[in-house]
Amino acid sequence: MNILSIESTTDVCGVCVVTPHETLYYQEITQPKIHSEKLPQFVHNAIHQSKKPISAIAVSIGPGSYTGLRIGVSLAKGLAFAMGLPIITVPTLVSMNDSLESEDNPRYVFVHSYGEWIFVQKFLNALAESEPQCIRIKDFQPDSVVNRIYGYGDFFSEQKEFEVQQVCPSSKWVGNSAIKNFDLWVENDINKVTPLYITNFKLQS
156 exposed, middle or buried (CB, 10 Å; 0-12, 13-18, 19+)? Predict the structure, then answer.
C-alpha cells in the first residue's frame, strides 16, 4: 500500500508518499498562501520520484484554515477521480496526536484558528476523548495540571497562561494515520468527501 498524503490545513504545505514500512517521498514547506501554487508541483514530484504505484490519496480534512482546506480537499478529490483511487479522510488534530509518544494522562492538541480562537481536541494516547471544538483561548481550562498541551501556530509563542509544546501538522503524520485507520476512513465516493469546518462551536460539513 502506497499512500499519497496531503497537508494544507495551516501554513504548512506538504505532500508525502508513505507505505506501512517507509517514507518514499516527502516535500514540505511552511509559508502562508502558497498552497494553490505549490501543492500541484509537490504532487507531480511525488508521483514521479516515488516510482511506486499510488494506492490511495490521503488528505487532512481539518479543522483548519478555510482556504487551505478547500485547496487540499479539492486537489485530493481531483487526483482520486483522475487516477481512479479512493480517498482517506484524515482529521488534522488526530494526525497530529498520532505523531506524539504515549503518555499516562490525557492531553490536548491545538491548532490556532485566528485572533483569540483555537481548534482543540482532547486525547488519551491514540483515543479521542472529545470532539474537536473552536473556542476562545480564555475559555480553555485543562482538566488537570498533569495534562500536557500541544499546539501549532504563532499564537502559542505569545501566550503565558500555560506551557505549550509545539507539534506541527505534516503530510507525514497524515499518511501514517491514513495507513493506521485505512478501513475506518477510506471513502470510494469522492462526492461524500468534504472538509471538516468548525464554526460557532458546532461541526459543519
Answer: buried
First to last CA, the chain: 29
DSSP-derived secondary structure for 31-58: -TT-HHHHHHHHHHHHHHHH-S---EEE
pLDDT for 162 equals 76
Q: What is the pLDDT of residue 115?
A: 85
Q: How many CA atoms lie within 13 A of 64 on its CB side?
A: 35
C-beta separation of 40 from 70 below 8 A: no
Report the alpha-carbon angle 167-173-179, nearest 5: 155
Query: What distance in Å separates the CA atoms of residue 8 and residue 172, rounded to the nearest whole number?
Result: 12
Strand partners, 136: 117
| pTM over the 0.85 mark | yes
pLDDT along the chain (205 residues), means of 10: 97 97 97 96 97 96 96 98 98 97 92 91 94 91 82 72 88 98 97 88 47
